[in-house]
Amino acid sequence: MIHRASYRLSFCLIATITVAACGSHTRQIDVALLASDRSVHVGGETLTLPYVALSDFVYAPISFSLRAPSGDERAQARRQRETFLARAAQRETAPTLESITVSIAVYASYGELGQSARICPRLKRRWAISICGDSYSPIYQALPHEFELVEFGKFEKYKHHFFAAVRGKTRYDQVSALRFRDNVSSVSCFSYDVSGHRPGQTCLAGRLVGNRLVALWEAWERKDGHEKMQERADREGRMIAEFVEKGLGGDEDFQRLERAAVELRSPDAPTWSPGRVYSPESMNRVVRYGLKMPQTFPR
Question: For residue 38, what pLDDT band results from cuts at 50, 70 and 90?
Fold first, then answer.
């Protein structure tokens, strides 16, 4: 078993290089690495997705220490990185992890650098291509923008995740309150009342999306009341299950995945931006699927 924590330090800088230029620091990104497909084995499932979508490795915060790492520690981190990347390059040799965090984002804006747009043409998975530069695409509008895929029962790490506003409770307590059943999303909430602030709650949704694979994501309710929290969790849970099956398997089924995304998009998902259609290609696909859409769009 390869544990995610052992890779965190060695991977936090893998996709970026800091160089000095004209007295300032400019972060350069490894476009080829970010766009490459990597496979991992979690909860009995082999999952393939672009490296840029693996939040734990790409977006992990840098950990600082009062003691600079020794040469041996740097060499060990480098070997761990190289071993992981080599094994993750093929589904047959995918390393086993207890969990991953998936980022659903406009990858062309990674790091807010113009060079990030170079990621899109290199991507292989069609779902990733569809959202790379298009935040209005059905898949982007249907999925939570970040969620964890965790091996069922491997929840011990959450015992060290405390809530600042919920006294004496941990994320482990919240996960333990979830009820994982087929085709049903469960929601667990803790209330808090911090002095000087309105009372509120922090909520977590969970769903079984494989035989031993669980999805976890933040749950919340629309303020306009058009979609209750449980309704939202059910919709997003269904979409994550579709995504795991049709988007992350060995053979991607993009057409069926996008069709599901059109059905499961957020109720307030935008279809155009002021003054013009945002991604006519995506909107035309929506129209073909028979979704009720305006007959004309501003240009």
Answer: very high
